[in-house]
Amino acid sequence: MNFKSLPKGTYFLLYDFIDFFEKDGPSFLQRDKYHDIIDTIFKNFSQLERDAIVFQYTNWEHVNDGYLNQKMVGNVVGDYFFICPMNDFAELAAERGMKVYYYYFTHRTSTSLWGEWMGVMHGDEIEYVFGHPLNMSLQFNSRERDLSLRMMQAFARFAATG
User: Fold this and answer.
1) pTM score, two decimals?
2) Does a structural domain hold residue 142?
């Protein structure tokens, strides 16, 4: 799975940078605003480190494409707060001989209240693990009910057997 292809940090952008983003649709993020956000998130980093982050998270063929800038900021947030710490923890555990497992939830719920640009967000899987789609008074589709059943079985099996 290419973790880079899926959004991970978009949810948090709305809370920390509400003036720059819209919940329901993609926002055109000007390049200077992109830099402002990076500088805010990484305010305790050196200028050289912030420049390296900008360099890594820039589509150099389309530097002024505000929609790509928005996507890249979401990737920065997701990588910095989720993917990198998760990988660091997994490597430490593996170095100590522990088994390490990952799962990556990629289903976007049909009834999501969040804009499609936000993709599948951190925590979206929780309602499936706890059977929320099985509540027939809610508007989940049959595929989502099946996914919830399979996830509950997989999590229960993992809890029982590792």
Assistant:
1) 0.82
2) yes
Instruction: List b or e across 78-110, with b for residues whose CB sees 16 or more CB atoms inside 10 angstroms.
Output: bbbeebeeeeeeeeeeeeeeeeeeeeebeeebe
**Residues 89, 28 within the same domain:** yes
Range of the structural domain that residue 146 is part of? 125-161
- Residue 103 exposure: Cα atoms within 13 Å on the Cβ side: 12
- Domain assignment present for residue 113? The answer is no
Output DSSP code: residue 81.
I
**Cα–Cα distance measured from residue 65 to residue 156, given in angstroms and rounded to the nearest whole number:** 45
Write the DSSP assignment of 112-162 as a string of letters.
--S-GGG-SPTTTTHHHHTTGGG-TTS---HHHHHHHHHHHHHHHHHHHH-
Is the same domain home to 65 and 132?
Answer: no
Into how many domains does the chain fold? 2
Q: Looking at the chain, how many residues does it have?
A: 162
pLDDT (tens digit per residue) in 4-42: 455 668 888 888 898 999 889 999 999 999 999 999 999
